[in-house]
Amino acid sequence: MRAMFRTSYAQDLLLARSPAAWGWYGLLMLVLLAIPHMLGEFYVGEMAGVFVFAIAGVGLMLLIGYTGLVSLGHAAFLGIGAYTNAILLTKGVPFIFSLPAAGLLTALFGVLIGIPTLRMSGLYLAIATLAFGSIVGIVLEKWHGLTGGFDGLAVPTPAIFGYVIEGRTGVYYLSLAILVAVLLLAMNILRSPLGRAMVAIRDSEISAQSMGIHLAFYKTVAFAISAGITGLAGAAYGHYTNYLAPDGFGILLSIQLVTIVFIGGLGSLHGAIFGAIFISMLPQAIALSRDSLPFGLGRLPGLEPSLFGIILVLVIMFEPAGINGRWLKAKRWFGEFPLHRRAAFRRQKSYAKSERLR
Amino acid sequence: MDELVRLLQLAINGTAAGCIYGLVALGFVLIYKATEMVNFAQGELMMLGAFFAYTFVGMWGMNYWVGFALAIAATAAFGYALDAVVLRRVIGQPQFAVVMLTLGLAFIFRAVAGAVWGYDSVGFLTPFTNKVADFGGGVILGQDNVSIIVGTVILCAVLYVFFSRTPLGIAMQASSQNQLAAYYMGIPVRTVFSLIWAISAGVSAVAAVLLVPVSMIDVNMGILGFKAFAAAVLGGFGSIPGALVGGIIVGITEQFAGRFLPAGSMELTSNIVLLAVLIVWPQGLFGQVIRKRV
Predict the structure, then answer these.
(1) Are A263 and A318 in contact (CB under 8 A)?
(2) Would the CB atoms of A127 and B105 count as touching at under 8 Å?
(3) Total structural domains in chain A?
(4) What span, in angstroms and rounded, lies between the C-alpha atoms of A109 and A227?
(5) pLDDT digits (tens, 9 = 90+) for A6-24
């Protein structure tokens, strides 16, 4: 592996670590742009699903991976974004306004729920957002006038300047565009003072406070940005499913979103993408292998959630850095191939850190 | 008079439901106080306890009391093993990693229970099913609700004596106050923690068996754990009496909301109470605030 030497402070602020990285990202982008012309309809749809989850994953990664705040209620933001976009489109608002409106309104909800809850830390925040998530879930189910109740709500086909975005390919390019925009936004946030403040808060609230970081302000901003991005993901999700059912935005989806971040690897934007790929591919992989499993295991109704749980448990126990951690280790292993030292990846012994004292 | 009696019955029903929430919340609190882990699978432990009891009493036809005791023992053993095999390994990881871990465990338990016992609702006859207790003056209550309240009181008394009088209980208190000091005093802290998990699982098994006369057993009964969260938070998440008081407050509020507020508000109650408490008293009703010195 080539060692990266830092020769100036400006280097810390670069978007990508090296010109070669730009080359690789560009190549990936070209491949992604070409995919709808090469693969079938089904795969294009699946990829669009990956992008939608990746957008939400990036939003949640900013919150959990970089600010250290856990939200177990992000499905609510996804739902608010999806319904805002769909209802505005139904009312005849053009898509170029309804999409940002979905993001902004969700960010506003993020601020509203953030202001009272962000005084809490760790555990209490997780529980408060869990409660918020289930309240929004029940409200979406019961408020028939807004959401159409159990009849659901059909999402109109969007159009940008007369160009109609339809079919799987349209949704594919739409969500890819949103994902790229959101990733650039996240990368730029992370190299700005805001991003540095977020990381400082994650590493130690009390030392961040001592350095002059206004905890409540930065936490609320981080929460709002995360909620807003998740709202955009919600809008894209609406177009991906074409149809919104009110019971789809419950606790289960929230947990799935957090799992994206955990399985992908905390504290890296790559991780959010890896996690999204994993979460979207798992149901497909199970569906494909259902018939070939021994002992009738494939016919068990609870197969998917239990595999989901088992993988989550194993990742947290044995690879806390997630898929991204594995990926970095593999890269390093090949990079220094014959000289690989086993001790390089040995985890340090860690001890319980009390969070009772703040 | 009639209205008064009805309100009283509503309050008793609420208290009975609240006792169950309180017992499950007690499980959260015991584990949190000792190990600072939050067990999101507590409701699923309760579900397992209910299915164990169903296996012993409903399927194998054992005596209710024998089945009750065996179900507690089996769930407690399961809790011990869970800590010894899984949770002991994640000590030192961030708190929310443990939260996700227990959420994953909850998924697994639910799927395994579904595979073993099926997805249908089941139940079995208890000595308290469909009987009434007449307290005179027109106050008639179901024995099921009375048995829940009495059972909770007995369990709390037993736990109180255990934690304040027996050497093991005192060792547990010591380990939750200061692990290192307890270790230096010769307390086997790791075993003690596993035993606390066992007690916590056992308490939720008691809650499960007490719940059997009023509710069916099914794979999704662990959802009740989320209401118990409201109870634990209300009580300050570290206070044992607080958990019970919190549970009873949530239970009674829920019953009254179901009676006097529009439909659908009953499901929302516990969550709204939870959010309101967290916003007004971020540390809960019985919580204590300690600041770290830098």
Answers:
(1) no
(2) no
(3) 1
(4) 8
(5) 787 777 777 777 778 888 8
Of A289-293, A307-311, B190-194, highest mean pLDDT: B190-194
Residue A82 lies in a domain: yes
Q: What residues in B contact A262, CB-CB < 8 Å?
A: 97, 100
Partners of B217 in beta bridges: B122
Q: Which residues of chain A neighbour B233 with C-beta distances below 8 Å?
A: 124, 127
Task: Find, in chain A, the residue whose alpha carbon is nearest to that of B102.
Answer: A313
Q: How many domains does chain B have?
A: 1
Residue A112 domain flag: yes
Say whether A358 and B292 touch across the interface (CB within 8 A).
Answer: yes
Specify the DSSP element, H or E, that contains A324. Answer: helix A322-335
The minimum CA-CA distance between B11 and chain A, rounded to whole Å, is: 24
Flag if B264 and A142 touch (Cβ within 8 Å). Answer: yes
Average pLDDT (B148-156) is 89
- At residue A349's C-alpha, the angle toward residues A348 and A351, to 5°, is 130
Q: Kindly list the residues from chain B whose CB atom is less than 8 angstroms away from the CB atom of residue A123.
A: 38, 95-96, 99, 237
Which pLDDT tens digit goes with each residue over B275-291? 888 777 766 666 555 55
| Cα separation, B246 vs B228, whole angstroms | 9
> Residue B51 in 3-state DSSP?
helix
Name the residue in chain B with its Cα closest to that of A138. B268
pLDDT at A348: 67
Provide, as residue numbers in chain B, all residues whose Cβ is less than 8 Å from the Cβ of A70: 96, 99
Say if B118 falls within a structural domain.
yes
Residue B288 falls within a domain, yes or no?
no
Quick check: is B280 in a domain? no
Close Cβ partners of A142 (under 8 Å, ≥ 6 residues apart): B264
Instruction: Please report, for residues A354, B31, B97, B128, the alpha-carbon distance to residue B290 in angstroms, rounded to integers and kept in the order given.
Output: 12, 20, 23, 45
The alpha-carbon gap from B97 to the nearest alpha carbon of chain A, in Å, equals 7
- Which residue in chain A has the smallest CA separation from B33? A356
User: What average pLDDT score do residues B150-155 get?
Assistant: 90
Task: Measure the CA–CA gap between A155 and A165, rounded to whole angstroms.
Answer: 12
Domain of residue B140: give its range.
2-218
The rounded distance, in Å, linking the Cα atoms of A321 and A315 is: 8
Task: Choose from A123, A211, A358 for mutation: most chain B CBs within 10 A.
Answer: A123
Nearest chain B residue (CA) to A307? B108
Contact A317 B105 (CB under 8 A): no
CA A286 centroid distance within chain: 22
Q: How many CB atoms lie within 10 A of CB B263?
A: 8
Q: What is the DSSP string of B129-189?
A: TT-EEE-STT-EEEHHHHHHHHHHHHHHHHHHHHHHHSHHHHHHHHHHH-HHHHHHTT--H
Residue pLDDT, tens place only, A43-74 = 888 889 999 999 999 999 999 989 988 888 89
CB contacts of B104 in chain A (<8 Å) are 308-313, 316
Nearest to A117 by CA among B237, B276, B287, B246: B276
- Within a domain: B261: no
- To the nearest whole angstrom, how far is the Cα of B146 from the nearest Cα of chain A? 30
Nearest CB neighbour to A313, from listed B91, B104, B179: B104
What is the domain extent for residue A59?
Answer: 42-250
